[in-house]
């Protein structure tokens, strides 16, 4: 008994209870482990699609030409959230009907190092070769060449973009782009018209194809009560003249009588163009762009742009892309069917008028102390500062070959005239003109052979003929009179120079 008191043995009940707890703990461990394994199995193998990648933002595809069946470049823009490693991939899926089998890499922004390109069906994959650095979050774009547009016109095409790591696991996306368009017929500026837009042509040359009279006489006069000084008249190949009032649009016969007039509710217009598809395109200061039939003024389409202007005018690319720009909002391209082609929010022109190379589609804009070259998709080719640039409606002005772009500025300290090399924005020459703010409230004009750039300075009231490559004045002539509002086109050269 004493032995039992000194060394008590556990009772049968206590031993059984201990063994039960041990078994329960073991079973709990096995059950918990099984649940964990089962959850992991479900997470990775049964429902792998439930793992969500971040979505790309601001995804768009911009054909450099919107014409159907045209082979050319496309710019794919997107903003990434997750960094793309130096051996990562960008996967772009084009819509059915676009031929991408011959696609090649042209350029990119936001990535460095080398890359390779592969095509499978409608999917183009750019694979980085691990010679660059990781591309961090932000806006990117890739330009691809050799893509043939769908043969059917539509405004609802979309592409998708996805970024992947080297094992093809999704990083961001798959994300669908904004809709883009192809147009059935190639529109463009009506070059058969003697004066189809404010600056005469896409280059903003202010060089006419007709011979002006030595001593002009009044043939007729048309009075309209809703007149406005912001926008000039345009004339088609039949001699019909189109003018915009603040409440009406007018078409005038060759004797000054009214062919037709239609009411408009957009107010003051900023620019007007005649197109090869017999359309009258009007941009209003409140941002609206309208296309009307020249036969009766009926409305074809209306587009609400975010870009309005006080004094600039619109221009047109070779595929009919309508171009408008201001320095506070950026530049916008509008397809000939009234849909958006691109929007570049980077400032580019102070209420000015773009000049367009009708061969390449490249776009040039001027601002006080700055200027820029753009590709047809609206992305920057170059941006230059320091040289005088156009201001408050003063346009960029391109020579015939597209190698030189010139402009006139009005603001101190950059008041004066300048010409730049279009390949890189380098300054060929600049000439400052004394007078300070308010000088050069006008634009220049090109000679028929583009060897001379005529400059008009006010309130200095002088006109100079300058060598286009050196800026040296061949002559300077004073004149008497005032000057018009910005970009009003008060210096024009005829076919006889």
Describe this structure in words.
It is a single chain. Helices cover 8% and strands 37% of the residues. Strand 33 (452-457) and strand 34 (462-467) form a beta hairpin. The radius of gyration is 33 Å and the shape is globular. By secondary structure, the protein is mainly beta. A five-stranded antiparallel sheet has the order 5-6-3-9-10, with no helix packed on it. A four-stranded antiparallel sheet has the order 1-2-7-4, with no helix packed on it.
Helix content: under 10%
Tell me the total number of β-strands.
35
Q: In angstroms, what is the radius of gyration?
A: 33 Å
The domain tally reads 3
- Portion of residues in beta strands equals 35-45%
The tally of helices reads: 2
Strand and helix map with partners:
Elements: H1 2-6, H2 12-46, E1 57-63, E2 71-80, E3 89-93, E4 104-109, E5 115-120, E6 123-128, E7 138-148, E8 154-157, E9 160-164, E10 170-176, E11 180-182, E12 234-235, E13 241-244, E14 248-252, E15 258-263, E16 269-274, E17 279-284, E18 288-293, E19 299-304, E20 315-316, E21 322-326, E22 330-334, E23 340-344, E24 355-356, E25 363-367, E26 370-374, E27 380-385, E28 397-398, E29 404-409, E30 416-421, E31 427-432, E32 445-446, E33 452-457, E34 462-467, E35 473-478
Antiparallel strand pairs: 1-2, 2-7, 3-6, 3-9, 4-7, 5-6, 8-11, 9-10, 12-13, 13-14, 14-15, 16-17, 17-18, 18-19, 20-21, 21-22, 22-23, 24-25, 25-26, 26-27, 28-29, 29-30, 30-31, 32-33, 33-34, 34-35
